[in-house]
Structures are given as structure tokens and as C-alpha cells.
Amino acid sequence: MDSLADIPAGTMRLIRGNPNREGSCSSLYLLVGDATRGPIHEISPEEGVDFPWTNSYSNRFPPRVKIFHFNDLHHHLVNITHNRCLPVFSRIVWKMREVRRACQTDPQTTTLLISGGDDLVGSVFDELLVGGGDTPYVHAAYQLYSAAGVDVGVIGNHDLDFGSTILEKAIQRDARFPLLSANLIDYSSIARYYYPAAIMITKGIRIGIVGLTTSAEMAQRIGSNFEIADPVDVAHNILPALKPHCDVLVLLTHLGFSKATRTAIIRGAGDLELARSLPYGYVQLIIGAHTHTVINEMGLSPNSIVNGIPILQAGAMGQYLGEVDITLHPKAVVTNSRLWMTSEILPDEDFEQEQVQPMVQEAQRLFERPLGSATNQPDLSTDSVINYMAEGESAMANFVTDAIFSSCSRLGEQVAFAMIDCSLLSAGLEPGKAFTYGDWFNVLPFANTLRFCNITGVQLKALLEENVLRINRPDEPNMERGFLQFSRGIRYKVILGTERSKARAAKILILGNPIENVLDQTFRVVYTNFLRELSHSWEAYAAREFGLSVFRVSDIPYTDSDLFLRNQMVAYIQEYGGVTEAGGASRDGRLIVE
Known about the structure:
By secondary structure, the chain is of the alpha/beta class.
């Protein structure tokens, strides 16, 4: 469709789509229109579109739909290390092809393969999308999904991390299957390349699928122009109009399991809240994602059936492949659900060699590119980063914060200091050894960008006084509490006290001045998006246990930038020849713990 403006409010246009030739769908129909403005009252076929308004499957034996699903692969198509490359996605392909071959001669059983979104962000394959390799601008996941026969996918929050313009080009170039999101409102041209819902027809069975996207952890990139509408409202707007035309109705969501889940941020509603909002058993199932939750590992669990609606999710990073059977006898119901551990599935050797390995060769060149050397400082090791970075001064934290500060100055962005939390880093480096781009990618695997805000001296004092309550203490198990580390412009002492609630900050110096002398000043601060987002669970606990008054950095008005942290760090590392003491990889006494 060239324009959505021609479609009246309350109406959706039904157009014919092109199903993935490698998939199982024989006919594809796509809904076009805006389900965010109010209830949909009419689905109107485009001129020349002949939609089967009644089902045409055989009633002699109960027909069955087998849906295979995976989610949150985060570009982990293979696991690349220096010494080997372990297949991941080709194992999913082997299982899917085995079942599809068996179903080819079974007139009653059909299959679909579905992606639950967040197909980007987390491996060196990301760099191929933004032109990091010799073959630039390849969405490796979409290209391999297309070759594998993925029938449909949903847009996840991290799929937009590189901006809607890059996603638009990736869909046009590499995706031979439809991408769905009924509640993503995009005001740019990408709106022509994703759809609110699809009706897939295979062996006469009409399977309606509605896509929903979370707004959590979604940064508004420069060059992007989108909003996320409330998924519950949108589902209620579109489902009543779609339901009469489907034999099976599925919600394909990237919302997360429930608001109580702490493995990812959930804003508004998760699948549990969505299911509770619907009439009993209104859809056959919800295939979810986002929180990386392992659901129904040992078969369909009563804990995952909410309001008569089964909720499914298959972990993350390709660890599991989900399988669910929907049998129509005559009402469509879930009759089987399980998770396959992919490590126990054989890889499809033909697919691995013909499709995956050409991508791997491009990614491997990036992975092995020399970047520099790490100074012989124990703080830089993975063990130190994981175990000690939130309990005191860290040479690795000093290096990263000073690099962010210096990079801003080099770009003409004048800031007083930089701050990060310890969840930013996923690994360390081998002290005293050379390292590659791939090694550094493992340290910073996410597509974090830089964010700016203005903070007053009064607010800064309150932030530091609250921050000391989050430090990992020697008498308590470590967990993610959102402890902040700062660049060299801030120096202070943490006095632990006899218990966490009695910890306090002392001798605070801001740019060399006692904090008391700068309370009336305002400082421009740079930090990374997603700051403290993994600490909400501990914050709720601390507020309940000892009355923590949470200082929410996100409540201070901020400006997002399109400056990717990894790019800035790589440039800084190359400038200093590695992670070196000259670049800030040392302890300088900016944080003293007493």
C-alpha cells in the first residue's frame, strides 16, 4: 500500500501477500490500516482479492497445525569464538525440515515457523547490518530465516535499535516473510513494510496472527519517528474484527511474560495481563518473547494457561525451539506443547555450509580484527568485571567512563562527567594480552547509545548518597543493584557502616570542588541508555526492606543521541593502542571504600 491515509478509521484493508516460498504457507493475506485509533469494525478486501471467508479443510480427521517458534535470538545464529564456531540456527532448521518432510504426505497436518522478535543486537553479526564487513548491509538473521522457511515474525524492541531506516532497508532486502506489529506507529516509510496482522492459509486452515511490540528498552534513534501504542487496547481493537475470519487465532507478542517478571523491563502489560484482559479462551494461544522466559519445558503447564489461553515462550539465544500443536476438533485447542533443547538437535549440514558459513566468514573477519592490547591490570579480567566491579573502584569502569567523557569532548559535546552502571559490561579481557574486535564486542554486546541530561548539584548530591546504598558489600551476595561508576570528574568515599541502610557518602569532590560549594550549579552529564534498568527488582525490595528512596535518573529530562557507545569505545581504544593505563585503565583513588 502506498498510503494508509486512504483507509478510513475503523476499517482495515485486506491485501494479498507473498508467502515465503521456503515456508509452509500456501496463501498469505495481510491487514493494512491503523488499529491504534479505535475499534476495527470492517475488514475490506482490496479490489481483486478473493479471500476464503469460510474454511475449506477436511473434517474427516481432525486437522492439526504444528507451530514451531523461537524468540530473542539476538543474532546468535552461531556461537563464534577464536577457536571454533558452534552451530545454533541450523539446528532449528534441521528439526523444522524433518517435521515438514513428514507433513508433506499428511493431508491433515501442517506446520509454521515463527520468530518472536529481537533478532538483532548481541553478536558480531550486528556489524554486517551497519556496514562493518566486506559485504555491507546484510541482516544475517532475516536472510537466514528466509532461506530456512520462517513464515512470519514480529518486530521486537531491539529490532529498532539501529533505527527504523536501517530496519526498513533490511526488511526490503533480506526478509521474504512478513513482519508484524499492530501497535507500532511509524511516521516514516517503514510503515509500508510491516503489518498489524496476517492471515496465513495452509491446507485449507486459516491462521490469523496479530503482532504486538513492547515499548520497553526502546530508544528513539535520530532518524526514527515512531511511537508504541498500548498493546492491550490495540488487541481489543483488532481481534473482534479478525476472529470471525480465522480457524486459529494467535497473538504473536514481544511484550514479556508479565509485569512481575524481572529479566527484562515491561511497561504497560505483559502476556499474562493481556490474556486476563480478553474474554475466556478468546484466542488459541499467545506466543511470547522479550523476557527470555523458559515456559512449558516439560509440557504444557497449568501455570502458563491464563484465562483459558496458553502462553508460550522459548527462552533466548537459540537455546530452545518451541513446538505447539493446535488441533481442530472442531474447536481449535492446544493439544501439545514442548521445548526442544537445540544442543540436542543435529545441525542441518547442508544449510550450515550453503547458507550460514558465508555469513560466518564475513563475521569472523570482523571478530578476529586486532584492536589493541590490555594492560596487565587484574581489574580488566572477566572474573573481576563480573564479581568485583560493583563493590569498589575498578580500572575497567574507570577506562570506560573516561573514554565516554573523552569521546564526547572530541565530538564537541561538552560534559562535566560520565556515568555507567555495572550491567553495561558483560565480560572482561585477558590482562596483559592482545585482544580483537570480537573480544571487545563480548565486553559490550549491546547497541547502547549515549544520552545527555543536566543535573543540579543538589540532585547530584542526592544521587551519590543513594548510590552508596547500592554497592555490593562483602557480607552479602552480589546482585544487580544499579551501582554507578563515574569518570574522573567525581571523587568520593563510601563509608559502608554496619549495614546497608547505614552506608553513606563522604568527601565528595565535583571537578575538584567540595559538593557543598556547587549545590547551586548545573552539570551536563553523559550516560548510557538502559542505565539502572535491570535494578528495578532490587529497588522494590530495598524500598520495602529499609525504605530506600529511589533516585530515578530517568526522571531527569534527557536527550538521546545517535552516538553508539561501541563505536566511540573502539575509536578511543585505537587512539590509545588498547585498554591502557594512559587511557584510564587504572585505579586513581576516585572511589574509596571504607
